[in-house]
Fold ATP-binding cassette domain-containing protein.
Amino acid sequence: MGLNPFKKREPKDKRPLFTEKDRANISWFWHGYLKQKTPWLFLVLGMVMIQGLVYQQFLRLTEDGLRVIFDSGQKTELIKVCIIVFGLFAVRGLMSYLVPRLSVWLASDAVLKLRRDLIQHLMTLDLAYFERTNSGEIILRMVNQAQDLSDFVGQQTVNAVRDAATVIIVSGYLIYKSPILFSTAVIVLPAIFFIMQSVSDRIKTVQRSAENALGNYMTGIEEMSNGMRTVKISGQEENEKHRLRKATVEIKSLSIRLQAAQALVAPSIDLSSAFVYVLVIGGGGYLALDPESGLDGAGIIAFLLGIVLVFDPARLLAQFFTRLQANLIILDSVYSLFEQKPSVTDSPDASDEFDPQADITLNNVAFHYSPSAPLFHDLDMTIAGGKRTAIVGATGSGKTTVLSLLTRLYNVEKGEIRIGGKPINSLKVKSLRSAFSVVAQDIVIFNSSIWENIRYVRPEATDEQIWAAAEAAEIAELIRARGDAPLGPKGSQLSGGQKQRIAIARALLRGAPILLLDEATSALDQKTEEKIQKSLGIVSEGKTTIIVAHRLSSVVGADWIYVMDAGTIVEQGTHADLMAQQGLYAGMFQAQKKSYGDD
Ligand SMILES: Nc1ncnc2c1ncn2[C@@H]1O[C@H](COP(=O)(O)OP(=O)(O)OP(=O)(O)O)[C@@H](O)[C@H]1O
């Protein structure tokens, strides 16, 4: 729908291999998700050590075997060596089976816990967070990135530990065999380190952009599928296609850039290894010719084999470090969700003792959604307990926002809202909200039956209670007609009026002492509206009811009416008072009477 142009985050400045933040993130992941599995991790470590030891023993036996061939020529000895070598590799094979099984289980368990924590944390975040964050970004963290971390920890990291164990054990053996030859071999290490350092920076930058591009792509898909009605009616299919294709091209080019950065590592290591082989063959050959060196032909061949055995895992290890850089960005992105702190929370001494039927007051309330556009400066209002209060006024004047502040969907900047003299900030958020039944403008319908949708607000309600609410909201007949059929994503199979009736049934079923009706009957035909108004009138009897409405005929009977304009109250009184004032309200009322023929 083109409403949300793909926003690009600026890549961060040049970063070292491990930043302070990376270390903190790793420590958070370790303490939160892996540390409690330490005994199992030790078991995995033990098994990968065995894999490394197999290579070292293989080298030793190969050297012995070669010596048998070169020197003594005893066939039985040779057969023995062959059987042991086979046995050793069978052990390595067994470990290769057990290690991934165990490590994937450990990582899946960690990611399950991580996902649960993400869900739990997400539920605590303010509404404002969801209003400023693309849903694609949230889905990316909860689905893809959590899975990426699991794969990275469960497979790639364990393989890297195995490779590191092999490198250390085999290198130790090679040093023991010939320190001179080994130091010749590792002469290339600084070059490898330099390459790693230079690519890691690029990988981090590209990975961050790639994650952003993927998040934006997901948001784009979600917007397109949710807004398909608007897309089709306004004939914007081509534009949408173009927008999503552009995003896929961006993802593709970033993937290629990422691969290009990583691709430098493997050939650099291959070149370095060629250099080392030449050094070992040349240097080893020279040493073998020198009787003083203590190395014979078998020793040199085994040494060369050892270098080959070290280089392969060393190459994989270097590649792992490039993937580590990419995963550090993913870890940072997942952790950033936990860094979002809710501001609408219970104060330490929050209570749930208050009288929900008492008067509600707003004193000197100031509020803004964004600092550049302040909405309320100094708002004062009294909503009488047990009475019907209406808020009317031009579109965008702040009526819905007043209702949102009462239910603490946002905190006020300044001033105070009280119920029965108790500041709402001193109450437990859950207790406060349980005092409200709401029919909001944006009605959320889930893809289940009408019955389940109504029951959503009070899962413990009896069938009789649900039927009573459905009858009063004029939706019972539709329940009988549709049965258990789901309503489609976002209730797409219902009309606007039917959705509104579900919302009203929900409010009636919830039966809380304060009823908020925000354009509750705006989508209904006059006959249905009259019937529902009657039901609402009966149900709201004795309850504090706040009605926001554009159609002024529906607020005529209210006990008190506030007229708002651009965040301030410009008039207030009963319908008769306001008509007598001949101000804004009277003007709007007369105009509506003319155009709708309202009484
Ligand atoms: N979540 C939000 N984030 C930022 N600005 C918002 C948000 N919700 C509303 N606004 C802005 O705050 C102002 C008041 O909005 P509000 O929804 O309270 O008006 P309203 O009087 O209920 O309007 P309407 O009659 O059209 O429903 C508007 O200018 C609107 O653009």
Notes: The mean pLDDT is 85. The first helix runs from residue 20 to 34. Residues 23-339 form a domain with the ABC transporter transmembrane region fold fold (CATH 1.20.1560.10). The first strand starts at residue 360 and ends at 370.
